[in-house]
Amino acid sequence: MMFVTVGTRPDGFDRLIRQLDSIAVDFDEPIRAQIGAGEYVPENVEWFRFTSEEEIHELYRTATVVIAHAGAGTLLTALSYGKPIVILPRREQHGDHNDDHQTELANALSERAEVFVVHNASELQRAMQKARSITVKSGSEDNSLARFLNGYIEDIDA
């Protein structure tokens, strides 16, 4: 099962969910999507808006691939479970966010083998296929990601 999450922002991320819904039929693996407060309701993937923290962690744990926005908490959680992650950052120009800090964070992580950053929704399918083909060691064995993200967040806040 591939797990999609858009986080807990009060607005959805319909750009991501629409594209996933349009390509879901091309995969032989189920896709489960947390769509948050988005307006678009997918037809080709199992979805829910919000759930418990325990359920979210179970979805991360059992997923083969995580597809998500570039929220720091989302990235840290996915990688701590040793999951490859496909990232479509929320962008100001698309009305997904009020700035482009998610693009900056995604680009900063893009050299990691388990991270697949796409800047256009049309690139999502290829990135998902690549992500499904790799195996990742658990991030709990390597605290460098946590240190990197904490330092990155501190720099943004400064």
UniProtKB/TrEMBL annotation:
Coiled coil: none annotated. Pfam families: Glyco_tran_28_C. It is found in: Endoplasmic reticulum. InterPro entries: Alg13-like (IPR039042), Cps14G-like (IPR048097), Glyco_trans_28_C (IPR007235). It comes from the Archaea. GO terms for biological process: dolichol-linked oligosaccharide biosynthetic process. One of its GO terms (molecular function) is hexosyltransferase activity. Belongs to the glycosyltransferase 28 family. PANTHER family: GLYCOSYL TRANSFERASE-RELATED, N-ACETYLGLUCOSAMINYLDIPHOSPHODOLICHOL N-ACETYLGLUCOSAMINYLTRANSFERASE. This is Glycosyl transferase family 28 C-terminal domain-containing protein. The lineage of its organism: Archaea, Methanobacteriati, Methanobacteriota, Stenosarchaea group, Halobacteria.
